[in-house]
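Q: I have 374 residues here and want to know how they pack in 3D. Can you give me a structure?
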Amino acid sequence: MEIHHPVLNILINKYKSLYDMLSCKTHIILLPESKTLLNTDINIEFIKKSIFLKSHLKNIYVNLCDQCIEIDTKCVYTNYGYEENRICDIIKIETNPNYNFFKIIFINIPLEGDKYEENISTNSISYNNNSSKYKNEINLFFSKNQTSKEYLYAQLSQFVSSYIIVKGYENYIGKKIVNIVDQTIKLQTNSNDRISGKNIKNILIKYTYSHLYDFIWKQLIKNYQNIELKIQKKIEYLRKDINGFLADVNLKHINMFHIEALSFHVKQIEKCVDPFDKITILDNISQLICEIISSTNQDLKKQKIAIYDINSDSLISIIVAAISYGQIKNIISHSIHLHMYIENLNDSEKIDKLSFIFTIFHSSIMYLCDMKIS
């Protein structure tokens, strides 16, 4: 069956020499919904960025411009080579013998560039690709609280159209988000503070951060691109000799296998669109590091070698190694994004464990900032 899609049609008709070079055994193509490409120049560069080959790493694909994506059963995640970490929903996957592709994957939005957004009335709450996971809880809350619904969406629209994130003053954005949520809750007509056993405020904050993620993230990356470039050079430098770095910080017996595993976990924050999910990942990582040190210490005891302390210094050093090995992108922006959230929690929400997890992560980044390389 013939597939009608502008990218595919232009590739076959205008760039046939490129198309003829492709193999139905190795190449895949990603096709965003046609309506999202209305103002897009579908040129040779765009098409090359849409065609991918499987890499040697699991679920990782590289396009003809050396950009990387990760594909699972439901989503496509942009990775190396992209200005922002974007999550695209997979609409369907086709295997069509009539085309020079192993797979043709249809996605809801482009991998990069401006996103298409439909005009949405304030009578209906909006769910973008980032915030859709909170759809059920939010719909349940707003089904009984129309005034809250109209207020929140009006505030989100105003936020995107009028707010600028000033470097160094990101906490004001976090404070604004909390104020919007607090006012949304005050306007509810049904004063039940829980949805299906979950706290309404937490759900609304997660939804708001997720809904505004693209807007916030784009500005954070722009604000910190110069610092980020310097940090990435240091990450690249460290990655060349992780074992040497571990030896320098008196952790030479930590196995590289563990660093590689940790780097995979750290890299998951690149897929997160709300700070709470990032905190959860970092919490898991801190627990894993403690387990790794404990396991290593058991081996050291058998060899009658001095064991390692489980303290903030060892956690920071191992996270630095994992960040460097995984070459985590936009690491400064991730830290600022977390700080916006944590700084605006009230005292009862800002538990010691949460603050400790963030402090360890932030200190790891500061270590990279302060590190001197030759």
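Q: Anything worth noting?
A: Confidence is low (pLDDT under 50) at residues 118-124. Residues 62 and 136 are 35 Å apart (CA to CA).
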